[in-house]
Structure formats: structure tokens, C-alpha cells
Amino acid sequence: MINEIISMNGYGAYVWSAFLFTLISFTALYFVTKLQLLKEQKRFASKFGSLNVEKARAARSQNINREILSNTSNI
Amino acid sequence: MFKSFEPNKIFVITSKAPKYVLFLFIVVLTIGLTEALVLSPEDYKQSDVVRIMYVHVPAAWISLGIFSSLALLSIGSFTFKNKNFALIAKSLAPSGLVFNIIALVTGSIWGKPTWGTWWAWDARITSMLILALFYVMYLLAWRIYDDKEKAVKVTSLIAILGAINVPIIKFSVDWWNTLHQPASINILSINTAIHSSMLIPLAIMTAAFALFSLLIFLMKYNTELIKVKNKGLDRL
Hints:
The complex is a heterodimer of chains A (75) and B (236). Chain A has 75 residues and is an all-alpha fold. Chain A has 4 helices and no strands. Chain A is rod-shaped and about 70 Å long. Helices cover 78% and strands 0% of the residues of chain B. Chain B contains 7 helices and no strands. In chain B, α1 packs antiparallel against α7 and α3 packs antiparallel against α7. Chain B is globular, with a radius of gyration of 19 Å. The relative contact order of chain B is 0.16. Classes of the chains: A mainly alpha (75), B mainly alpha (236). Chains A and B meet through α2, α3 and α4 of A and α1, α2, α3 and α7 of B.
């Protein structure tokens, strides 16, 4: 059974390489996108940390900024 | 009408959604791979090599669907002067390009045992390659132009011009003699040339691929929104 699945009637190299290429592409795209997201979240947190109290309060008044900060704290 | 979809309002959803979409994607992909590689029957002519269809066809469908969406969003961006449309289009493009490359590479792998060649300049393959070039131009334009207004205009133009190629890809097998067979599935008709034992795995793999493109879109869209907010902090 396992041998049949691996050999695919002699077409195993073609079938498995097509599926592997797809899964590797998915994994690479996922991690590249995830890294870009983490980088921007970290940049936001560092910029926010350097704001003075008044500016930080103004920035915190926006829901989206609070949401980004709450996500950043989970990194 | 578009106010409910403003980034500030939907970020709460888009920032939390990826983990649920990732979970669903893994579940659907696992079922799809089991169906595609183990449970579905081999083809009476192509034998097991037909299983490449389960990655090749969904990848081609989704890359075409994403490019059509880019064109529609670009038209919307021009018509309604809504910047969010451009941001959505920009976030969709990377997964569209990856699906296009997957379709070309897996098609090439499928071509060798069935047609005896890795590559042929037939109408379907060539028009898919042209689509990949439009994706590359679209993504490069976002990187090249620092002026956002100009970047939106140039990328929109690329997407609208590239959309002319989408019906060419779809009907290339009917208009020209190509190595590709005519379409086996028509979404407007219940009659398909594919048996349900192959159609079901194909549908599951298409759903898995669609979930993956949604996952990448959400992560990329969140990244773009945070970039905008980073610029906003600089202006404070």
C-alpha cells in the first residue's frame, strides 16, 4: 500500500515533486508574510514607546492603534 | 456604502481572523491531500500522474480569480477614489503570483509524462506566463514608486491592462489548437466531464487553496494597515 502510494505506478517523481513544490511555496510565502507583519508590529511598538505622554494618549484614542498594540504584546 | 469596510473598523476582525483561517486551512488541506493522493482513483489514460491536477488546476483558477479581483478593485479605486481598494488589491497580489508560479511549474511537471515535454509555447501556457509577468510588474510598481498616488495609478493601469489577458487564458483552448484539453468543468452548467470521485477532491483542494490565499491576504492587509499607522505616528 505504502509502496504503491510512493511509486504512483512509476509516476511518483512527477506527482510528489508537484505536491512538494506547492507545499514548499505555501510555507515560504506564509513565513515571509508573517515576518513582514511581525517587523511592522515591532516598528509600531518601538515608535509608540518613544512618544511623549500627550502624543501617546492621542494615539491611543484610535481603536486600531490599541488593537495593534494588544497584538504586539502577544509577540 | 464603503464606510462599514473602513480599515479602522475592520482591523479588529482582520487582526484576529488569520489564526482561525490557518486552522481551517490545515484541516481542509489535510482532507484534500488524503483525497487527492490516496482515495481518488487513477485515470484510465494518464494513470496516477493525473493527481497533479489537484494542485495545478486550483492554483490556476485562483491566480486568475485574484488577477480579476485586482482589475475590479483598480476600477473601483479609480471610480470611487477609495484608497482601501488599492490596499486590498496590493495585499492580494503576492498570493496571486505564487499561485500563478505553482500553476506554471506543476503544469510543466505534468507536461513531461503526458506530452513528452516540460514546456511548449502553446496559447494557454504562454498566456499564463504573460499573466505572471503582469503580476511581477504590478508588485514591482508598488516597490518602485515612492509617491503613493502615482503607485496607485500605475498599478491600477497594469491590473486593468493585464485583465485583458484573463479571457484570453480562459478561451485559449477553444480559440486555438493547443496541447491543453478544452475545459472539463463549467461553473454555469451541472454537466462536467469529470467523475465525482475526482471532482470532490478537486473541490476540496480548491477550497484549501482559497483559504490559503485568504490567510495570506489577511496577514498582508494587516501589515499594510500597520505601515499606514506607522507613518501616522511619525506625523504626530
